[in-house]
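ok trying again, last paste got cut off:
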Amino acid sequence: HKGLQYDVPESSSIPPAQYTLEVLRNGTIVGNVDLSERAYTVFGRAPDSDVILENATISRYHALVQYKSEFEHGQAAGLYLYDCGSTHGTFVNKKRIEPKVYVRIKIGHLIKFGQSTRLYIVQGDSTIEDDTSMS
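nice, full thing came through this time. structure:
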């Protein structure tokens, strides 16, 4: 990720469990993105992104999903969505997230990048998520 300006957090690690993003287009599942093979997965138009998105409203390095292995800065271990300062935004459950801020994502959450019509649903084993944290 040559042009990506991102400081990997100290708690960055490969997830201990299987997580995927189910990709939907017009209500039909068109694929899956495996989040379990690396500590973070980059989404964008740049050719070296982990997941290349072709919609015109997607930035070169649009956003990433980061796994954090431990409690850090008041945030529990788990998956986080991070908008890399994109022009057209990143959305979780239809709400635009702040750029350059980690937003906790959980199983069942819906992610959208820019104005792309594709939706991404977080999938995984719900027994591993801590139910005591506020969402």
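cool. The mean pLDDT is 92. The first strand starts at residue 19 and ends at 25.
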